[in-house]
Design goal:
With 256 residues, the chain is α/β, with parallel strands linked by helices. It has a single domain (4-255), classed as Divalent-metal-dependent TIM barrel enzymes (TIM Barrel). It is built from eleven helices and eight strands. The chain has helices at residues 14-24, 34-38, 42-54, 75-95, 108-111, 115-133, 151-160, 171-177, 182-189, 218-228, 241-255; strands spanning 4-10, 27-31, 60-62, 99-102, 139-143, 165-170, 193-198, 233-236. An eight-stranded parallel β-barrel has the order 1-2-3-4-5-6-7-8, surrounded by five helices. Helix 6 packs across helix 7 and helix 9 packs parallel to helix 10 (218-228). It is globular and about 50 Å long. The mean pLDDT is 97.
């Protein structure tokens, strides 16, 4: 495949899936959950990194996200978030990922009139992350989760204003929460896209189905990607080996 293609792999299942990854020459997006980080063996992580590099494979990292929020107005939650972020940044120094994906922690129902305060707190957190990642050679990409339209993420990218601070466009999440069309999203954020997450759904739940099994217009999606972010990393967020195999087959015309 000519595009930079990655596939979602939880680190706690990495040793189980590593032979398949190496045989199929799949670049993994390694999900480092809180549990994975708390039990991480640096020597084992280094061995995994070496195995990938020896086969000419790269990786990205999906950072922990459950209950974390770098822009939280509660200091203790920000402290917990930065603890996890520092743990995953330690792991990045070993793995040397192309991209590190983080969740922003924002939703309009919680923040409302406090959006500006959330933004101010977020900027401080991302400046710390960027300060640590510069020597690693990775790009930081913030993923859309509950965002219904792109204005809050755009404000975040403009406020941080760093070439290493980019966007991960998750087309499945967009389909679930959207109040704007895909073209409007790309017009606002397309120039910041460093990675995309590919999976499908019908707009009612986060199915993580293979493309073509939901309601997303992937012809439009790939056309917009070629226009705005042709060099981005493409990550297939399949949650089973069968769905990954199906996705790889369906996506051959777009990613080959």
């Amino acid at each position: 495949m000519s595009k930079r293609v990655f596939a979602h792999v939880p680190y706690l299942q990495m040793q189980e899936h590593l032979p398949f990854i190496l045989e199929r020459r799949i670049n993994p997006e390694i999900f480092l959950s809180a549990d994975a980080l708390d039990t991480l063996d640096p020597a084992q992580l280094a061995a995994t990194a070496s195995a990938l590099r020896s086969e000419g494979l790269s990786c990205t990292i999906h950072s922990p996200f459950m209950d974390l929020n770098p822009g939280s107005l509660e200091r203790l939650l920000r402290d917990a978030t930065m603890h996890r972020f520092n743990q995953v940044l330690d792991a990045a120094e070993i793995l040397r990922p192309e991209v590190m994906v983080f969740h922003p922690g924002f939703d309009r129902w919680r923040y409302g009139d406090a959006t500006a305060a959330w933004l101010d707190m977020s900027v401080v957190a991302w400046q710390h992350v960027l300060g640590r990642i510069r020597g690693v050679g990775s790009v930081i990409a913030v993923e859309n989760i509950f965002e219904e339209e792109p204005s809050t993420l755009k404000a975040l990218f403009e406020a941080v204003d760093d070439p290493l601070f980019r966007h991960c466009f998750d087309v499945g999440h967009w389909n679930l929460f959207k109040k704007v069309g895909m073209e409007q999203w790309f017009e606002a954020l397309g120039s910041w896209i460093a990675e995309v997450h590919i999976h499908d759904n019908s707009g009612t739940r986060d199915d993580h189905a293979p493309p073509g099994q939901g309601a997303i217009d992937f012809e439009l999606f790939f056309g917009l990607m070629e226009r705005y972010a042709p060099d981005a990393a493409y990550t297939i967020e399949a949650h089973s080996k069968a769905h990954l195999e199906t996705s790889l087959e369906v996506l051959k015309p777009y990613l080959g």
